[in-house]
Amino acid sequence: MSMDFTLGRDAIARLCDRVEAAQQGAYAIPKLTDDYPNMTIGDGYAVQLELRRRFIAQGHRQVGWKAGLTSKAKMIQMGVNVPSIGFLTDRMARPESSAIKTSDLVHPRVECEVAFVMKKGLKGPGCTRQDVLDATDYVLPAVEIIDSRFSGFKFDLPSVVADNGSSARFVGGGRARYPADIDLRTLGVVMEKNGEIATLGASAAVLGHPAEAIAMLVNILAELGEELPAGSFVMSGGITEAIPVKPGDSIVARFQELGSVSMRFIE
Ligand code: OOG
Ligand code: MG
Questions:
Q1: Which of 233, 202, 63, 52 is nearest to 136 (CA)?
Q2: pTM higher than 0.90 for the full model?
Q3: The ligand 1 atom nearest the CA atom of 237
Q4: Rounded distance between C-alpha atoms, residue 151 and residue 159, angstroms
Q5: Which residues contact 230 (CB under 8 A, 6 or more apart)?
Q6: DSSP string spanning 17-64?
Q7: For 58-62, which contacts have Cβ atoms below 8 Å and span 24 or more sequence positions?
Q8: What pLDDT score does 81 carry?
Q9: How far apart are CA 234 and CA 118, in angstroms?
Q10: Are the C-beta atoms of 6 and 86 separated by less than 8 Å?
């Protein structure tokens, strides 16, 4: 991927105003490319990094990053064929087994992901799956609650990148494992909603191996002039399609080898 940046500071600030207001007010907006049809993926990242700058200035703390659109199921569901990344902050984290509010979200969906915690920093370009495995402290199961701020959950890549990859909430839990002790490619996952199977898959759905998604993320970071610091919490992307949730729903994500992660949703 090569990153083109075409928008000036003013346009980036204006687009960031829209995304920030929609995130904080929990309302849907038209996709940004309706008004800026020539917006590039690079421009989307410029808006995302401006949003991160504002959040950090407001006291949010970045805890890591997420890869998105890394599985076929997700690419087909969203109609996009290139992976993306987004930042994660302390304000998005929720404890395992907790009740998650939906009144401050637009139209939340949940997805199962393998999360990595890094013991060493990584820097692209040229980061490989093996580099990622060598730098990983442990992996754990996670559920991401995504919430596109675009009407109908419909977008294109520049718009979703500007909206920080639909990041909203995330829950890590289950059982942490060292990557050398399990086969990260063949982990089965089952997501249950209200006691019934909603979707299921295997971790190889994520670019053949979830560590591949982390390598891709590190290489995108390099194009943005950033690196992945030691201690980061990094999600590798939804294995299956995302499942809509509403108040009253309860979710259990069962991961082979990694235990389960559960939560329920309230008004
Ligand atoms: C974009 C975010 C994708 C994933 O894991 O694929 C994502 C979206 O689908 O709204 O987080
Ligand atoms: Mg995700």
A1: 233
A2: yes
A3: 5
A4: 12
A5: 118, 119, 120, 121, 135
A6: HHHHHHHHHT--B--GGGT-TT--HHHHHHHHHHHHHHHHHTT--EEE
A7: 60/89, 60/90, 60/91, 61/89, 61/90, 62/87, 62/88, 62/89
A8: 85
A9: 8
A10: no
Residue 214 makes CB contacts below 8 A (sequence gap 6+) with 67, 116, 122, 132, 136, 228, 234, 236
* Residues forming a β-bridge with 188: 202
Nearest ligand 1 atom, CA 66: 11
- CA 56 / ligand 1 centre spacing (Å): 22
Domains and CATH numbers, the chain: 9-266 (3.90.850.10)
Among 52, 150, 54, 147, smallest CA distance to 107 is for 147
pLDDT digits (tens, 9 = 90+) for 152-204: 999 999 999 999 999 999 999 999 999 999 999 999 999 999 999 999 999 99
Q: Would you call 9 helix, strand, or coil by DSSP?
A: helix
Q: Closest-lying ligand to the alpha carbon of 237?
A: 1
Q: What is the Cα Rg of the chain in Å?
A: 17
CA 99 to chain centre: 20
**141: which strand partners?**
114
Ligand 1 atom 10: residue of nearest CA: 166
Only one residue has tokens 């992976």, namely 83
Ligand 1 centroid vs 237 CA: distance in angstroms? 7
Distance 242 CA to ligand 1 centre (A): 8
From CA 53, how far away is CA 205, in angstroms rounded? Answer: 33
pLDDT band of residue 8 (cuts 50, 70, 90) is very high
Q: What is the mean pLDDT of residues 14-28?
A: 98
Q: 78: Cβ–Cβ under 8 A, 6 or more apart, which residues?
A: 69, 155, 160
Cα separation values, 160 from 84, 96, 128, 155, 228, Å: 9, 27, 25, 6, 21
